[in-house]
Design a protein that fits this description.
The chain is an alpha/beta fold and 276 residues long. The chain folds into 2 domains: 1-19 and 91-142 and 179-276, 3-Layer(aba) Sandwich (Rossmann fold); 21-89 and 147-178, DNA polymerase, domain 1. 38% of the residues lie in helices and 11% in strands. β4 (202-206), α10 (209-217) and β5 form a beta-alpha-beta unit. α1 crosses α4 (75-83). The radius of gyration is 19 Å and the shape is globular. Mean pLDDT is 87; it is low at 1-6 and 258-271.
Amino acid sequence: MNASSVYDGSKKNLDDTLYPLTSGLSREVTKNIQEYMIKKLEMKEEKVPELCVSLYKQYGTTMAGLKAIGYNFDYNEFHDFVHGRLPYELLKPDPFLKTLLHSLPIRKVIFTNADKNHADIVLRRLGLEDCFEGIICFETLNPTNEDDSSADDSNTEIFDYYTCITCPDSQLELPSPKVVCKPLEKAYEQVFEMANINPQKTLFFDDSIRNIRTGKSMGLHTVWVGTSQQTDSADYALESIHNIRQALPELWEAADEKVDNILHSREVPVETTVIA
């Protein structure tokens, strides 16, 4: 299969990539995260919305940011609170995408910052559970944290992140990340090793421009999903994941015609993979 394809495979992000932002599920995720911050971490409600967004932008996920600045909580409890109460019925089966993915003659791997249970449920709701050879998620990227009770961090002082982001002249130095996730280069390096992926022969689909930028810098061929806006970091921009075949017909043509390098004009090598 790989020998006749332009790419060995692809990496695909899960949320807001395999299903659209308009589903409303991401809005519910944000709502649950903010509720966790208020109820479980006892953070001031008026500061939570800004902190939630800022930590996400700085550390890749709000949870990673909360850990970095010193909050002590169990990862599984966080995921259960945030994802365990989601209205997954918002997601509907997508037979068109299922057929499209099955017809794509290259390896396909999920690369998500979310936990495994959430990824499994989303794929089942979309009817795509048999479309990917593997899922690389929070637990696989952070194996030592899987059953972490964070007991050793119980006396950690909380970093004054709010002052840091609201006072431009602050001399405070941001804490280093404790969680491995996109868009950290370390997360991509682990994925390449775990899935035996050559980034120069891999398509990377994601809805986040930050993740796309890192992917591009790591040698991946990038597809920014959810927009048609062109950027130097994205080799392709798709309004919807459904548009793959229109944007990249070479993937299917290569399998049928067994060409040596159908994307020669774009300087993309043969035999690659897809990650999302």
